[in-house]
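To the wet lab folks,

You asked to see what we're planning to order before we commit. Fair enough. Below is the target structure as tokens, and below that is the sequence we designed to fit it. If anything looks off to you, flag it before the synthesis order goes out.
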């Protein structure tokens, strides 16, 4: 039961989607492995108060994962919001928003620099406060699941779950070309920080079919990797006057 039958035909982006998924998720994995092996918290410790004693390691794992979701989401929320609202970062995130349809394959279509910023802000505070690697692994699994779910072209209804979690109906608004709808719902997993910072958005009507960005994104993977570094597109992208 597709949410949008017009999104079923191929969009010519499958290899670019897979290329970005491999490079961006590869970056994330490298940081997780690097962080786990050498201990990012050990590196951060000399420049911070002894924060690594802050994490409640004695709590049940489920409670630690819930705490981790809320804490990490603060970093993820601001990484995402700044990528939309600060012009120098938008071209990196525009690679994700340039898709004209949503389906499971473009879940991981992120420029690797965009992913790098999110993972550093999202998991940095967890490493710094001494969260065990197991919590971070749980969060990675939940983020992967919710990410795939929110990009699925499947008709589903979530009701009140959309008040708490990021869901396909919320994320379709986030992909709207209309910035009054698209610059909303920045939460990756939970919507807490969207409520606190007034960016939660949902409507009874159907989200737009015509999604994407106003500027032109080159069609090929390598061109898209280069796109944000192209000087002339900086500061000119997106209509920031809205
Ligand atoms: Zn976005």
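Sequence we intend to order:
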């Amino acid at each position: 039961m597709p949410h949008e039958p017009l999104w079923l035909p191929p969009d010519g982006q499958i290899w670019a989607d897979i290329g970005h998924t491999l490079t961006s998720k590869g970056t994330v994995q490298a940081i997780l492995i690097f962080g786990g092996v050498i201990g990012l918290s050990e590196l951060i410790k000399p420049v911070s108060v002894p924060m690594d004693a802050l994490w409640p390691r004695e709590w049940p794992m489920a409670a630690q994962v819930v705490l981790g979701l809320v804490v990490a989401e603060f970093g993820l929320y601001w990484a995402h919001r700044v990528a939309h609202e600060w012009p120098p970062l938008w071209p990196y995130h525009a690679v994700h928003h340039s898709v004209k349809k949503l389906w499971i394959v473009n879940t991981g279509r992120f420029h690797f620099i965009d992913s790098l910023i999110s993972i550093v802000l999202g998991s940095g505070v967890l490493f710094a406060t001494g969260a065990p690697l197991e919590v971070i692994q749980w969060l990675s699994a939940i983020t992967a699941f919710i990410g795939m779910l929110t990009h699925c072209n499947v008709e589903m209804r979530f009701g009140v779950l959309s008040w708490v979690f990021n869901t396909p109906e919320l994320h379709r608004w986030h992909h709207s070309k209309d910035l009054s709808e698209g610059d909303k719902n920045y939460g990756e997993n939970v919507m807490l920080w969207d409520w606190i910072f007034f960016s939660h958005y949902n409507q009874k009507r159907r989200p737009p079919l015509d999604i994407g960005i106003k500027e032109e994104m080159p069609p090929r993977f390598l061109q898209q990797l280069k796109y944000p570094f192209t000087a002339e597109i900086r500061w000119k992208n997106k209509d920031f006057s809205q």
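Structural context that might help your review: The mean pLDDT is 88. Residues 103 and 152 are 5 Å apart (CA to CA).

Thanks,
Computational group
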